[in-house]
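S2.1 Query sequence (Hydroxysteroid (17-beta) dehydrogenase 4)
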Amino acid sequence: GIVNDLGTDTKGGGKSSAAADKVVEEIRAKGGKAVANYDSVEDGEKLIQTALDAFGRIGKCGLLSVNVSFLLFCISDLIQRIHLRGSFLVTRAAWNHMKNQKFGRIIMTASAAGIYGNFGQANYSAAKLGMLGLANTLAIEGRKYNVHCNTIAPVAGSRLTETVMPPDLVASLKPEYVAPLVLWLCHEQCQENGGLFEVGAGWIGKLRWERSQGQIVRKKNKSMTPEAVRDQWDKICDFTDATKPATVQESLQSMVSVLSRMESEDQVGANSTAAAASPASSMAVGQKLPPTTFSFTHTQCILYALGVGMSTKDPDHLRFLYEGSPDFSCLPTFGVIPSQAAMMEGGLSSVPGLNIDFTQVREYINCILGKLTSEATIADVLDKGSGAVILLDVHTYSGGELVCYNQFSVFVVGAGGFGGKRTSEKAKASVPPPKRAPDAVVIDSTTRDQAALYRLSGDWNPLHIDPSFAAMGGFKAPILHGLCSFGFAARHVLKQFANNDPSRFKAIKVRFVKPVMPGQSLQTEMWKEGNRIHIQCKVKETDAVVLAGAYVDLHGASEASPENLTQGGGLQSELVFAEIGRRIKDLGSELVKKVNAVFGWEITKDGKTAAQWTIDLKNGSGSLHKGPYSGKADVTFTVSDEDFMEVVQGKVNPQKAFFSGKLKVRGNIMLSQKLEVILKDYAKL
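Output structure tokens follow.
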């Protein structure tokens, strides 16, 4: 190692090589290698060059211990130059060498005077705490190069302390009781980084910051006043349930939380994460969020399918990606999109008793699928200790008919501990998979841009795209949406056990366990138990479980046997089209003005096309054609005879029929909104 000492006296004067030479002799006598250096630490390049000349690199352990406590305290500029600037210059001289060799260990020698302050040592205290700040940043910047930086605040006998301490106390504070900590922190096996340690007399202690929960002291759209600070001072300084932020990101989380809650709070309230589920949270149960509306076309359905990994490379996926496909359908899990909009845009953060930091939100979904309106209700609030769970029921309607139900379990990290109940009979229970090998396994790769693509379906949380926001949530990089992984797993089941038939899809329950990073591969394991498919999803590269306790319930496959049917023979829909034809003869011109489109219909029975109809409400005074049509329809519907009658009689909403896969549409899907004009107003049975 390099032993650096100017050899000044206790007043900062003079210069001698004796101090450094003595230590070198001691190291060599014990079989070590050492070289003396007598330069000032302000000449950091010279010090490091001495090491390179002697050893060819910055030591096997990469030790850089900056200890300049022998300098005089009284000269402010000199103190800053030697302690803080000197540490910086020596470190800078060694930094690139350490980075290039992918190894380095830096130990800054601070002082209790810098940590706690000390009478008469303002200049010294400032320099020593400055070294701690330097060390903390070096720990962050050096981490990816295996360059670690820690700080020690030693109490040891020295030329300086022996003049002010009793001899017996100096003897008990030998440097030998500090050196072992330094050696361990320098060792290649030691992974400690960014630590601060007090050490002396054979005792070692690690320090960390502690922060009170704090208090919000301003109101929405109001100025912050010193009186509000005064009135809340006791709560500001209350260290009950104190937090221990370890990074700038963790520190900023509180600021993000404050800004989020400030938008909804009308009065001064606690700046405690636990306030998200304080006893006042009982006020939230039963509260209804403002209704939200959601309009979509085939574009949103296709974009969602792409977002959950569907690709034209798989021919089976075309029915979900091409609106002109004869079997064009919407993935059934698309139903979470309007429902999630109700949760995120419907004012969840404004519900009395709830304060939510959205960098800390995790979601769990239970949905039964099928211009939509969603209504959300707080079903319950649970205390899980480390966080709070908000059960949110979302019902989505088309007109007055329920087409989709979702239950979201929103987990808010750090919001627990308020004394609430841990379980709820309103929660949909998870179910573990059978204890046997899975019946099927599907592995699917996500892309680096999977989250960037999925968010276009409406989940705009910056946690999934903005690295700085993700860091505030405690993640090294933006993570994949949990609902994206959910979509991957659901379509794996749909293909493996339902032949990609959305009408077979009944319900799905998923519990999210860990996040997925875009670019990782998802491995879905499936167990079939009757019409229930148990699923577990893992990250293939790490074997980490990301979806657990999950299942998909399917409708049973049709038991009917296909028959060869004659064109239109024995179909109930014949009566409906006959009535439509009569109405066109009577009111054709009026219908053409209202509709201005050509509709094609393919009526099936037992899975085979049984009849074809074309309703032309674009040309002339309108017409109805049976059989193949020589022109081109603007939109074509494929539906079974039975389901067609359900829609016509108002027993099934067209939107719901489309979501469930019973009604397939190709062409201009927006024209489907005019079905009511044709089927309801003018087809009275």
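The CA atoms of residues 181 and 420 lie 45 Å apart. The longest helix spans residues 76-100.
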